Amino acid sequence: MPRPPRILLAGGGTGGHVYPAVAIADAVKEIAPDAAIMFAGTRDRMEWEKVPEAGYEIRPITVSGVQRRLTAENLKFPFKLAKGMIDSFRLVGDFDPDVAVGTGGYVSGPVLLAATLRARPLVLQEQNAYAGLTNKLLSRRAAQVHIAFDEARDYLSNVPCILSGNPTRRALKEAARSEGRAHFDVPEEATLLLLTGGSLGSRALNDAMEAHYAALLEDHPELHILWQCGARYYDALSGRVETETGPGERMNLVKFIDRMDLAYAGADLALCRAGAITCSELMVTKTPSVLVPSPNVTEDHQTKNARSMEKEGAAVLLPEPELDDRFAGEVRDLLASEERRQQMARAAGQLARPDAARHIAHSVLSLAGWSGAGEREKKKREEGGNTET
Hints:
Layout: E1 6-10, H1 15-31, E2 36-41, H2 47-53, E3 57-60, H3 77-95, E4 99-102, H4 108-117, E5 122-126, H5 133-138, E6 144-147, E7 161-163, H6 170-174, H7 177-183, E8 191-196, H8 203-219, E9 223-228, H9 231-245, E10 251-254, H10 260-266, E11 269-272, H11 276-285, E12 289-291, H12 301-311, E13 315-317, H13 323-336, H14 338-351, H15 356-367, H16 372-382
Parallel strand pairs: 1-2, 1-4, 2-3, 4-5, 5-6, 6-7, 8-9, 8-11, 9-10, 11-12, 12-13
């Protein structure tokens, strides 16, 4: 009897690398419940907490990035690289994966290189319109590269690319507008503006909203604002917002939103950064958006993500240097035009690939030689399922 498939996943450092890996793992387990899953990560990054929370085992790999300026830390890099390769070879030897999957981040480099040197098939998942350095370097060794934006092909020439989309949480597809409105105490007939600068918050977005929220609320009596400012900005902002407007039902300033599925479901318009996962969540939830790319990311990849969505009519790209001058006009215009927001929602929905995780999981299991994929999907179709393979 053939052994169950064994899948090794490497991706870490940020949520943009960790959450897609977890989503792929979840999809693999849904399709092949007996599959063995192992993650590789670093002890001081978020994967060390989030992967076990998702129910998966993780093994530590020694890894660090190279500082762009000359520092003493860079002198340790060759030794950490060597230790990381030793860790990675040991992990691949111990776990004996059928396929190795990488979703980006420094930890992907040594782990996936060790896997390919041991002749294991390699699958890469690139979240952004601009391919990251690790994925570009490893792509020539990959059996498959799954991309979320068609523009990524420009940076992965002569590599087999599959436009699969970014894996997103199932809850995003299942949340209802009425549920989102009830959760945040927003009337059904109101217009809800959602602002989020990510889990840590964004000073630029917070400053822009602070400068304009009072006028927006005055000009649009039906408007409600759900504003996730980030824990480090909350105390100062809550004092100023309360001083200027008093506690009001139409302004909801929070440190962190733990039910983003309900926030998207209830929102009529989102103002946010343009990270790859955020963009994919906006597509899946069909949320019209104003995207303000962070200028502090590698190769300005958030601008490329936002430009891709704007080109298809799903979002408005608002560069951060133009935020003060254009904020009021762009947001007011969109709040005033339900028809335009509906057009953007349709465009976002057309870009969405809600079954990305399952699609990638099928590819991974196929490369692993898992024989159950065909039979399970055949049974699903016979039962009336509509699963993408």
